[in-house]
Every structure is written in structure tokens, then in C-alpha cells.
Amino acid sequence: MKFTINPAANPRRAVAALLMSLASAVVGAGTLLIHVSAAAQSTSATSREPISVVKEFLANTAPDKVGPAAKRLVAPDATYVSLNFSNPELKQIEPWAGTSKGPAGFSDTFSRVATYWKIEDFQVTDIFGTGENVAVFGKFTYRSVAVGTTFTSPFSILAKVRNGQIQYFQFMEDTYASAASFRQSGSWTVKTDPNAPAFKVGKTE
């Protein structure tokens, strides 16, 4: 920006006018910088790699962290498919099972898991993605708090991330082992092979 002083003008007025012009320019430039900075932050938040968003969420699933993490990283209309789409019997054992919506579905699931089980180990062994899709594989070892039964299960996650937020999250594990970790007694009589006799599985005492 170029400033000029009219020699014929009153020197004091000319200097005052110059100072006012400079002040206006500084304020204008400052305002521009603020707008650019805000836009840059917004772009940075929405253009984050989907893998980094999923990693950050998984790193903050402890009961005291998962609520804020879900509000920050999960879309308001996100879908969480936990173990199955809908299974009323399993939901009696594991209340988070099934399909839920929004950040609350994510935070409630991980909070309850930490209440029902002691998490002895949780490892992500592979994570990769393309576009909005992220795949995660790993294993965990949990011990049920009420019964004390320990089990180790593989797990897999399919996540979809758009504009820096998780839109879809499907978590799969060995549900037979996880549900059985709460069993105190009882067995099933099952018949799997149509050409073989039935047999019992589970605790018989």
C-alpha cells in the first residue's frame, strides 16, 4: 500500500491523516490474518487423514477420555454397529451390542466395556485405508469383573471418515468368547452335524 502527503496541506493534518491511514491498514491486515488463520484451522480439521482420526479415537477410549473424544471425532449422525446389527439375546448380556447412533453410542459402548471387563491387553496389529475407508485389525485380552473369566479375541473394525469425523464404525470380535466370559454355570446341548449325535458345550456344574 502506498501513502502520499500533499505538501500544500497543513503538516499536522497531513501527518494525522497518514497515521490514520496506517492504523486502518494495520487493522485491516490484522483482520485479514485472523480470517486466514481461522480458515486454515478449519481446513486442517476437516482434511485430516481418515487413518489419523481413527487412531486418535482408539487412543482415547478410556472411560475418562472417550466422551470428549467421541464429541470431537464422531459425527452427530454417525452409525456404530457393535458386534451385530441386532440380536436381542446378546444385548441382554452385552447391552452395547447392536446398532446405535451418534457420539453417545460410541462413548457408552467403551465406558460399559471398561465396567464389565478389566482390559488386560489391547493391541492394534494392522491399520490401513483408502479414501474415506479405514480397516483396523488386532487382538485384546479381557477379564470379566463379575466372574473373573479371561479370554483373548481377535477384533476388526471398518470405519468411514468424512470431513475429519467418523461417520460409520463397525466393530467385530469373538462374541461367543466374550459372552461366555460372563457365564457362571449351565451348558448347551447342540447338534451341528446332521449325521452326528448331539453333544454338550459349556460349564456343566
Describe this protein's structure:
- This protein is of the alpha+beta class and 205 residues long.
- The chain contains 6 helices and 8 strands; from the N terminus they run αααβαβαββββαββ.
- The strands form 2 sheets. Strands 2-1-6-5-4-3 form a 6-stranded mixed sheet.
- β4 and β5 form a beta hairpin.
- α2 (50-58) packs antiparallel against α3 (66-73) and α3 (66-73) runs antiparallel to α5 (102-116).
- The longest helix has 36 residues, at 11-46.
- The termini are far apart.
- 16% of the residues are buried.
Sum up the structure in keywords.
two-stranded antiparallel sheet; 6-stranded mixed beta sheet; 8 strands; alpha+beta; 6 helices; 205 residues
Basic shape? elongated
The major pleated sheet works out as: 6 strands, mixed
Order of helices and strands: HHHEHEHEEEEHEE
Gyration radius, rounded: 29 Å
Number of strands: 8
**SS element count, helices:** 6
- Roughly how many Å apart are the termini? 89 Å
